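Q: What would this complex look like in 3D?
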Amino acid sequence: MIDYLGDLFEGLLVTFQLSFTALGIGLILGLAAALARKYGHEPLSLLANAYIELIRGTPLTVQLFIIYFGLPSLGVLFSPTLSAIVALGINSGAYQAEYFRGAIESIGGGQMEAALSLGMSRLQAVLRVILPQAFRLALPSWSNEAAYLPKYSSVAFLVTVPELLARSKMVISRNLKPLEVYLVVGLIYLATIATISKILDMVYERYKITVE
Amino acid sequence: MGAGEEAIGDRCLTRVVSVRDVWKSYGNVEVVRGVSFDVEEGTTTVVFGPSGAGKSTLLRCINMLHPPDRGTVFLRDIDLMQAGGKMNYYRSKFGMVFQHFNLFSHMTVLDNVMIGPKVVKKIPQDQAKAIALEALEKVRMKDWCNHYPSQLSGGQKQRAGIARALAMDPEVILFDEPTSALDPELIGEVLQTMLDLAKEKKTMICVTHEMGFAKAVASDMIFMDEGVVVETGSPEHFFANPTNERTKRFLSRLTELYGRHEGERRTAADRE
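A: Here is my prediction, written as structure tokens for the whole assembly.
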């Protein structure tokens, strides 16, 4: 009956590729921005702040179009897939930065003080004491980001990346069954997001901590 | 006998910490205003006074967590204001015990106590573990070493906090109101641990209002108010005839609040 599942599956793989790469880029950017805002000197912390506010204040689609359609006029040419990954990664980083910053704020100064009082350097204290706790505390909100990214990544179809939504449009142009195909695609997104959420919930339960 | 040593009776004392005219402000509030005193090896110094007197800030100036604006602190003959890049190393010579424990929430008690020797002193895992277990034994927390801080009572947390400081084998231990956040029935076990350390001749600077503890082990007491040292002396001096009017008023208020030598009584009760 559903002879186009193979096509959609290929699209799903591209969706995964976009989402997980972007999540990784966002993780690095988000951590860097959160640490810069909390511990950086003024120029660095202002820069991090500008990044976070700029990205969170503009639509993802606009960010993607600037990278894909806008940057070539400056001589920077990315492939559709790379454009989508960069846009999603930069976008996700701004949100992840806020999750990590919130987590770091809630840890409180006493933990840093205790680490320094043992003779640790600030860097050691951040790596050994602050970040391990920040990861655990940020996990619930970070999980949402991870679970929703496959959804957000569907904007990549606007720049011709053959991800799940783009594939479904191709299928529909052949079989002319939009209702059926979009319902199936919706279910695939739903199953994907539910699975990721479930896994991350289990991780959270395993590692959660109570902050004093 | 070198500089900084002098014979008093049959004791040969060596100066471990010298606080020299320390000043500290936050914004335009002067919290510590020219404090000086010496701490001899193997002695317990009790710092007390009303809240806002600058006691906790003074402790943080001593181990340079918050370096003073003016004045300096010597650890033995080392001027800590000139320590530069070796600051973290010298800070590890000061143990610190906090009012709110500040145990690392994501680590077991054992890991909390091991992390200093392991990360700061670069001691191998096995040895660090042995050191940590010994410190935990001393505060009677060895049976709890695999628990997380959130699973402990306040008294247990504070004893683990003391073990964490001990594991670094510090020259001095700074106590910042170690029993103030505890339920009354848990104060005794922490005071007992501190009494044990004092009797072992650990050098300690304790910010505390436990006058029973002070009377039992303090060699010097320092009364602070509004950022300055108002009066110093032995416990005998303070409990028999404090000279300063402010000291008298504060001590009588403490007695009103807690009863006479409450700490001592609780400690005795705990032993039974």
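A: To summarize the key features: Chain A has one domain: 5-207. The first helix of chain A runs from residue 5 to 39.
Q: Very helpful, thank you.
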